[in-house]
Amino acid sequence: MNPYLVNDDFGEPCDVYGYNYDMEGPPETDYDCQGYTNIPDVVRRFLIYFRNCINEGLIFEIQNLYENTFPKLTDQYFDKKPWPSCEEVALLVDDDIFLILYKELYYRHLYARVSGCPTVEQRAGSYSNYCELFNILLNSESPVPLELPDQWLWGACGRVCVSIPVVFPVQITTPDKKFWRT
């Protein structure tokens, strides 16, 4: 049985695409010595599989993972607490584009579910991550080989527009007074 595949009900893994995952991710024996123990095994497998699907451009599988599996894992493991930090995930899945996309999900989860979050630093980190994503997409000399579901792209565009006045308050001037809008 391949340890890097997950399905929606978290039972027996399935691979509808026939991808060879045998060489992906760190060896199982390295988990304990490299800090992987903070990430549940099913989440580790999900992250590796999610990265592979993004790298291969499997748009329908990405959409399924984004819309169904990520929320199920959130409910099961991270309902009121943050997903693993980006630094922990980077040890497991070293891929710049994937890590930017993971951070987008990570910060969105903080906004939606974690009490006391986001802090000012997290808001700035979220905005900075959007800037990094759009800089890669818009400043590349050739097309970036990345396909994402429309829902994810539109959501990211909307969230970056909403986050600008939250991260950077705008001074509004009226004839009789000045005040800060946040």
Question: What features would you highlight for this structure?
Answer:
182 residues, globular, 54% helix, initiation factor, 2 strands, two-stranded antiparallel ribbon, protein biosynthesis, single chain, disordered N terminus, cytoplasm, 6 helices, mainly alpha
Task: Tell me briefly what this model is.
The protein is mainly α. The chain contains six helices and two strands. Helix 1 (41-56) packs antiparallel against helix 2 (59-77) and helix 5 crosses helix 6.
Write up what this structure looks like.
- 54% of the residues lie in helices and 4% in strands.
- The N terminus is likely disordered.
- The chain has one domain.
- It has 6 helices and 2 strands; from the N terminus they run H-H-H-H-H-H-E-E.
- It has a two-stranded antiparallel sheet with strand order 1-2.
- Helix 1 packs antiparallel against helix 2.
- It is mainly alpha-helical.
- The radius of gyration is 18 Å and the shape is globular.
- Keywords: Cytoplasm, Initiation factor, Protein biosynthesis.
- It holds the Pfam family Paf67.
